[in-house]
Design goal:
It contains three helices and seven strands; from the N terminus they run E-H-E-H-E-E-H-E-E-E. Strands 1-7-6-2-5-4-3 form a seven-stranded mixed β-sheet, with helices on one face. The chain has one domain: Rossmann fold (3-Layer(aba) Sandwich). By secondary structure, the chain is α/β, with parallel strands linked by helices.
Length: 136
């Protein structure tokens, strides 16, 4: 497990961007952290590392549930915040593109079935400080 401390959104973004540059196109990133912790900032950094041209388009898909972006690989960005039941999560059909694209899941702690992936936990510290744990 790698643990990093960032002191701004920009540092969090760059940490994720560096991680995304090494992706091979079939990774699953499971993001956990409280509301406002920086999960979407981390997702934007990953998207940048994957070559998504306009990262200003990368936003939390809280209401659409899934956003799709194109970089050097397809990128599926899911947000499970509004979902309550396991069946709602399963009914999204997102397992269809596992292994075919990079998948980022915000609020991954809501997944109650076994799921392998890169687990990223973001903990809020003082001011803009974040402790980010990355488990491959």
């Amino acid at each position: 497990m790698k643990v990093s401390v960032t002191h701004s959104e920009l540092e969090t973004f760059h940490l994720a961007e560096k991680l995304g540059r090494d992706f091979r196109g079939n990774e699953i990133v499971l993001l956990t952290g409280e509301l406002g912790a920086g999960k979407t900032v981390f997702a934007k950094g990953l998207a940048s590392g994957l070559g998504v041209k306009d990262i200003s388009q990368v936003c939390s898909p809280s209401y659409t549930l899934i956003n799709i972006y194109q970089g050097k690989y397809p990128l599926y960005h899911l947000d499970l915040y509004r979902l309550r039941e396991d069946a709602e999560i399963s009914d999204l059909g997102w397992e269809d593109f596992l292994g075919e694209a990079v998948v980022i899941v915000e609020w991954a702690e809501k997944i109650k079935f076994p799921m392998d992936g890169i687990r990223v936990t973001i903990e809020v510290g003082r001011a803009d400080e974040r402790t980010i744990s990355i488990r491959p």
